[in-house]
Amino acid sequence: MGRISAPFGIQGWIKLKTFTEFPDGLADHDRWWIGSGQDWKAYSLLEFAARPAATVAKLEGVDDRNGAEALRGLEVVVSRKALGEAGPEAIYWMDLVGLEVVSLSGEALGKVGGLFETGETSVLVVNGERERMIPFIPQYVKGVDREAKRITVDWEADYDA
Questions:
Q1: What distance separates the 2 farthest-apart alpha carbons in the chain?
Q2: What does the pLDDT average to over 31-57?
Q3: CA neighbor of 142 nearest in space, from 133, 130, 131, 155
């Protein structure tokens, strides 16, 4: 759902880089799991603000800048159960991460490393022989096959965009 990018202020607030379509959606979940690899810890969300300059949060037990600094770079997730089902016409961004991306001609372009929002469009970050950024819109994304773990795109390996 996101990553802690930095401390925010001196009272233990954290700044977040969100991987969700709407950053304030994280505020809907009062329990966050923070960590990486096999090391995760649950935190209760006390306060949250999605501002134009930064998305910030205050977590229970993180009381000063040093505590917030210790969380820098860690992932923020919520339980899958808390999210519910995405539905047949929707997909969670986290379900796209790791999927193989192939062109209409069948050429492998890489795997989805993440997504970000540009304001109007979501963008796939595809990591392969080089990083590609492909707008997640019907013009380019022709299909998402969850079972095959593949996204088919109208995008060729030699595109510079």
A1: 53
A2: 90
A3: 155
Per residue in 65-95, pLDDT (tens digit) is 999 999 999 989 887 677 767 666 777 777 8
Going from the N-terminus, what domains does the chain have, and what CATH number goes with each? Answer: 2-83 (2.40.30.60), 93-153 (2.30.30.240)
Read off φ and ψ for residue 68, nearest 5 degrees.
-70, -40
d(CA 83, CA 93): 12
Q: How far is CA 102 from CA 25, 151, 159, in A?
A: 30, 6, 13
**At 93, which helix (H) or strand (E)?**
helix 93-96
Contact 78, 33 (CB under 8 A): yes
Buried-state track 118-139, b at ≥16 Cβ within 10 A, e below 16: eeeebbbbbeeeeebebbbeee
